[in-house]
Amino acid sequence: MALVSPSLLAADFLHLDSEIEMINRSEADWLHLDVMDGVFVPNISFGFPVLEAVAQRCIKPLDVHFMIVHPEQYIDRTAKLGAMMMNVHVEACRHLHRTVQEIHNAGMKAGVTLNPSTPVSMLEDIIEDVDMVLIMSVNPGFGGQDFIENTLTKVARLRRMIAGSGSKALIEVDGGVHAGTAPRLVQAGVDVLVSGSYVFRSATPEHTIHELRELK
Ligand code: DX5
Ligand code: ZN
Fold first, then answer.
1. Residues of the domain holding 119
2. For residue 60, what is the domain's CATH number?
3. Domain count, the chain
4. Catalytic option among 29, 34, 125, 129
């Protein structure tokens, strides 16, 4: 069984209130929020005004994924939202260890994120200090892309690294997660599934969340 963190990026932005109510009623474990700056990734999503509004209504723990340069500049504001998890990209952090420390000092859990071409070996010297590794299974920037199959090998490699260290880090996978890919990810030992379009474009999103959580 894996936890499910639906990605709000695929929600109906004209009706965020009812989308958040759906998440609140559902069995979703967390809510995944994708912040994009048009620099680190070739797309712009939403920023703090939207995060603050969502944080006021959403009863689920917030799993915030920053696809931005200099995420360290936003640690305090993210903590003020009451976010549970702050995910930063390894590729965006020159001093990743310091950033992870600052996220912890601000009272949040720290997630480190890998682009598809970034090897898990980049994490060898920080794996014991992080709460989660977010493996991108698409190139970040857009919802609705095809799952990159190499992700399964990468998850297995990360599982071995975690097992061989004292780390208790969770493994989260983000991008192209749907009925065709989620069972294999759960089998490979993924702890948290992020799913955007598959959940929000479903005719019965609450049931889709339930089904993802039931996978063995
Ligand atoms: C992509 C984002 C994802 C995105 C996933 O850059 O990080 O969270 O919303 O969307 P789907 O599930 O549609 O691939
Ligand atoms: Zn994401």
1. 3-214
2. 3.20.20.70
3. 1
4. 34
